[in-house]
Give the backbone structure.
Amino acid sequence: MPAPKKARPGTRTPRERVRVLITGARIHKRIQALAREIRKDFPGEPLHLISVLKGGVFFLTDLARSIPGEVSFDFIAVSSYGQKTHSSGQVRLTRDLDSSIEGKTVIVVEDILDTGMTLRYLLRLFQQRKPKHLRVAVLLDKPERRIAAVRADYVGFSIPNEFVVGYGLDYAERYRNLPYVGILVLGPGLKKKPAED
Ligand code: IMP
Ligand code: MG
Protein backbone atom coordinates (compact mmCIF):
# COMPACT_ATOMS: atom_id res chain seq x y z
CA MET A 1 0.00 0.00 0.00
CA PRO A 2 1.43 3.39 -0.86
CA ALA A 3 2.47 5.57 2.04
CA PRO A 4 -0.03 8.29 2.90
CA LYS A 5 0.79 11.52 1.19
CA LYS A 6 2.41 14.11 3.39
CA ALA A 7 2.19 17.80 2.67
CA ARG A 8 5.57 18.62 1.22
CA PRO A 9 7.37 21.54 2.73
CA GLY A 10 7.07 24.48 0.40
CA THR A 11 3.91 23.12 -1.22
CA ARG A 12 2.62 25.91 -3.35
CA THR A 13 -0.30 27.93 -2.22
CA PRO A 14 -2.50 28.92 -5.14
CA ARG A 15 -1.13 32.04 -6.76
CA GLU A 16 -4.54 33.25 -7.68
CA ARG A 17 -8.10 32.12 -7.64
CA VAL A 18 -11.49 33.45 -8.63
CA ARG A 19 -14.38 33.85 -6.21
CA VAL A 20 -17.79 33.86 -7.89
CA LEU A 21 -19.51 37.22 -7.60
CA ILE A 22 -22.32 36.94 -10.14
CA THR A 23 -23.39 33.56 -11.45
CA GLY A 24 -24.02 32.87 -15.12
CA ALA A 25 -27.71 32.37 -14.38
CA ARG A 26 -28.03 35.82 -12.78
CA ILE A 27 -26.17 37.41 -15.69
CA HIS A 28 -28.46 35.70 -18.16
CA LYS A 29 -31.60 36.82 -16.34
CA ARG A 30 -30.39 40.39 -16.01
CA ILE A 31 -29.50 40.60 -19.70
CA GLN A 32 -33.02 39.48 -20.63
CA ALA A 33 -34.41 42.32 -18.52
CA LEU A 34 -32.01 44.88 -20.02
CA ALA A 35 -32.94 43.75 -23.51
CA ARG A 36 -36.63 44.26 -22.74
CA GLU A 37 -35.92 47.68 -21.27
CA ILE A 38 -33.90 48.78 -24.31
CA ARG A 39 -36.57 47.62 -26.73
CA LYS A 40 -39.25 49.36 -24.69
CA ASP A 41 -37.32 52.64 -24.92
CA PHE A 42 -36.99 52.36 -28.69
CA PRO A 43 -40.03 50.44 -29.90
CA GLY A 44 -39.89 49.44 -33.54
CA GLU A 45 -36.53 51.14 -34.16
CA PRO A 46 -33.53 49.47 -35.70
CA LEU A 47 -30.82 49.36 -33.02
CA HIS A 48 -27.11 49.45 -33.73
CA LEU A 49 -25.02 47.89 -30.98
CA ILE A 50 -21.34 48.78 -30.73
CA SER A 51 -19.18 46.56 -28.60
CA VAL A 52 -15.77 47.49 -27.26
CA LEU A 53 -13.29 44.69 -27.93
CA LYS A 54 -12.59 42.41 -26.36
CA GLY A 55 -14.27 42.56 -22.96
CA GLY A 56 -17.72 43.53 -24.22
CA VAL A 57 -18.10 40.70 -26.70
CA PHE A 58 -20.04 38.14 -24.64
CA PHE A 59 -22.33 40.84 -23.30
CA LEU A 60 -22.99 42.04 -26.85
CA THR A 61 -23.74 38.59 -28.25
CA ASP A 62 -26.11 37.73 -25.40
CA LEU A 63 -27.79 41.14 -25.44
CA ALA A 64 -28.18 41.20 -29.23
CA ARG A 65 -29.88 37.81 -29.21
CA SER A 66 -32.29 38.92 -26.51
CA ILE A 67 -33.51 42.13 -28.14
CA PRO A 68 -36.47 41.49 -30.44
CA GLY A 69 -36.71 43.29 -33.78
CA GLU A 70 -34.03 44.76 -35.99
CA VAL A 71 -30.55 44.78 -34.50
CA SER A 72 -27.18 45.26 -36.17
CA PHE A 73 -23.78 45.47 -34.58
CA ASP A 74 -20.20 46.62 -35.01
CA PHE A 75 -16.96 46.59 -33.05
CA ILE A 76 -14.38 49.10 -31.94
CA ALA A 77 -11.13 48.64 -30.04
CA VAL A 78 -9.22 51.04 -27.84
CA SER A 79 -6.21 50.85 -25.61
CA SER A 80 -5.32 52.95 -22.62
CA TYR A 81 -1.99 54.31 -21.60
CA GLY A 82 -0.40 56.02 -18.66
CA GLN A 83 -0.06 54.98 -15.07
CA LYS A 84 0.38 51.28 -14.74
CA THR A 85 -1.95 50.59 -11.87
CA HIS A 86 -5.23 51.59 -13.38
CA SER A 87 -6.86 52.24 -16.67
CA SER A 88 -5.37 55.63 -17.48
CA GLY A 89 -6.69 58.85 -18.85
CA GLN A 90 -5.21 58.45 -22.30
CA VAL A 91 -7.26 56.38 -24.65
CA ARG A 92 -6.27 55.52 -28.19
CA LEU A 93 -8.37 54.05 -30.96
CA THR A 94 -6.85 50.80 -32.26
CA ARG A 95 -9.72 49.59 -34.44
CA ASP A 96 -12.43 51.79 -35.85
CA LEU A 97 -15.98 50.85 -36.78
CA ASP A 98 -16.77 49.25 -40.13
CA SER A 99 -19.78 51.40 -40.88
CA SER A 100 -21.12 54.90 -40.37
CA ILE A 101 -23.38 55.55 -37.38
CA GLU A 102 -24.94 58.71 -38.74
CA GLY A 103 -28.68 58.74 -38.10
CA LYS A 104 -28.59 55.42 -36.25
CA THR A 105 -29.82 54.58 -32.79
CA VAL A 106 -26.58 53.46 -31.22
CA ILE A 107 -26.09 51.53 -28.00
CA VAL A 108 -22.51 51.27 -26.83
CA VAL A 109 -22.07 47.91 -25.14
CA GLU A 110 -19.22 47.74 -22.62
CA ASP A 111 -18.15 45.13 -20.13
CA ILE A 112 -17.49 47.49 -17.24
CA LEU A 113 -17.65 51.17 -16.39
CA ASP A 114 -14.71 51.85 -14.10
CA THR A 115 -12.98 55.26 -14.14
CA GLY A 116 -15.14 56.20 -17.13
CA MET A 117 -12.20 57.39 -19.24
CA THR A 118 -12.78 54.86 -22.01
CA LEU A 119 -16.46 55.65 -22.35
CA ARG A 120 -15.88 59.38 -22.18
CA TYR A 121 -13.50 59.06 -25.11
CA LEU A 122 -15.86 56.86 -27.11
CA LEU A 123 -18.94 58.96 -26.45
CA ARG A 124 -17.16 62.10 -27.67
CA LEU A 125 -15.99 60.28 -30.76
CA PHE A 126 -19.42 58.85 -31.56
CA GLN A 127 -21.26 62.08 -30.85
CA GLN A 128 -19.24 63.80 -33.58
CA ARG A 129 -20.53 61.23 -36.05
CA LYS A 130 -24.13 62.36 -35.57
CA PRO A 131 -26.07 59.29 -34.44
CA LYS A 132 -29.82 59.72 -33.98
CA HIS A 133 -29.56 58.50 -30.37
CA LEU A 134 -26.51 57.48 -28.36
CA ARG A 135 -26.93 55.29 -25.29
CA VAL A 136 -24.63 53.22 -23.10
CA ALA A 137 -25.18 49.72 -21.74
CA VAL A 138 -22.67 48.24 -19.32
CA LEU A 139 -22.78 44.85 -17.71
CA LEU A 140 -20.94 46.05 -14.62
CA ASP A 141 -20.56 49.43 -12.97
CA LYS A 142 -17.95 50.29 -10.33
CA PRO A 143 -19.23 53.72 -9.27
CA GLU A 144 -16.58 54.16 -6.57
CA ARG A 145 -13.81 54.36 -9.14
CA ARG A 146 -15.33 57.02 -11.36
CA ILE A 147 -13.08 59.88 -12.51
CA ALA A 148 -14.87 61.03 -15.68
CA ALA A 149 -18.45 62.16 -15.36
CA VAL A 150 -19.97 59.39 -17.42
CA ARG A 151 -23.09 57.45 -16.65
CA ALA A 152 -24.58 54.42 -18.28
CA ASP A 153 -28.21 54.32 -19.36
CA TYR A 154 -28.44 50.58 -18.78
CA VAL A 155 -26.50 48.86 -16.00
CA GLY A 156 -26.43 45.13 -15.39
CA PHE A 157 -24.94 45.13 -11.91
CA SER A 158 -23.35 47.72 -9.66
CA ILE A 159 -20.34 46.11 -8.01
CA PRO A 160 -17.87 47.03 -5.28
CA ASN A 161 -14.37 48.23 -6.02
CA GLU A 162 -12.80 44.82 -6.70
CA PHE A 163 -10.90 43.54 -9.70
CA VAL A 164 -13.23 41.17 -11.51
CA VAL A 165 -12.76 38.64 -14.29
CA GLY A 166 -14.92 36.41 -16.44
CA TYR A 167 -17.70 36.85 -18.92
CA GLY A 168 -15.31 38.79 -21.18
CA LEU A 169 -13.22 40.48 -18.51
CA ASP A 170 -9.61 39.43 -18.30
CA TYR A 171 -6.55 39.37 -16.15
CA ALA A 172 -3.55 39.40 -18.52
CA GLU A 173 -5.86 37.97 -21.24
CA ARG A 174 -6.93 35.06 -19.07
CA TYR A 175 -10.34 34.22 -17.56
CA ARG A 176 -12.38 35.93 -20.29
CA ASN A 177 -14.09 32.60 -21.01
CA LEU A 178 -15.51 32.07 -17.51
CA PRO A 179 -19.30 31.90 -17.79
CA TYR A 180 -19.66 33.98 -14.59
CA VAL A 181 -18.13 37.11 -13.09
CA GLY A 182 -15.75 36.55 -10.20
CA ILE A 183 -13.40 38.50 -7.98
CA LEU A 184 -9.76 37.80 -8.68
CA VAL A 185 -8.04 36.87 -5.46
CA LEU A 186 -4.27 37.05 -5.70
CA GLY A 187 -1.84 35.22 -3.46
CA PRO A 188 0.39 37.13 -1.06
CA GLY A 189 2.88 39.47 -2.66
CA LEU A 190 1.17 39.54 -6.05
CA LYS A 191 0.03 42.81 -7.51
CA LYS A 192 -2.79 43.37 -9.89
CA LYS A 193 -2.00 44.34 -13.38
CA PRO A 194 -3.38 47.47 -14.96
CA ALA A 195 -6.99 47.38 -15.98
CA GLU A 196 -6.73 47.74 -19.70
CA ASP A 197 -8.71 47.29 -22.86
P1 IMP B 1 -12.38 52.77 -17.54
O1 IMP B 1 -11.87 53.54 -18.73
O2 IMP B 1 -11.53 52.98 -16.32
O3 IMP B 1 -13.84 52.95 -17.25
O4 IMP B 1 -12.08 51.27 -17.82
C1 IMP B 1 -12.73 50.51 -18.64
C2 IMP B 1 -11.95 49.29 -19.03
O5 IMP B 1 -10.98 48.86 -18.05
C3 IMP B 1 -12.93 48.16 -19.14
O6 IMP B 1 -13.47 48.14 -20.43
C4 IMP B 1 -12.10 46.95 -18.82
O7 IMP B 1 -11.50 46.46 -19.99
C5 IMP B 1 -11.03 47.46 -17.89
N1 IMP B 1 -11.39 47.14 -16.49
C6 IMP B 1 -11.83 47.98 -15.56
N2 IMP B 1 -12.08 47.36 -14.40
C7 IMP B 1 -11.79 46.05 -14.62
C8 IMP B 1 -11.86 44.87 -13.79
O8 IMP B 1 -12.25 44.87 -12.61
N3 IMP B 1 -11.47 43.71 -14.40
C9 IMP B 1 -11.04 43.65 -15.68
N4 IMP B 1 -10.98 44.72 -16.48
C10 IMP B 1 -11.34 45.92 -15.96
MG1 MG C 1 -13.20 46.81 -21.98
About this structure: Strands lie at 16-22, 47-53, 71-81, 90-95, 105-113, 133-141, 154-158, 164-165, 181-186.
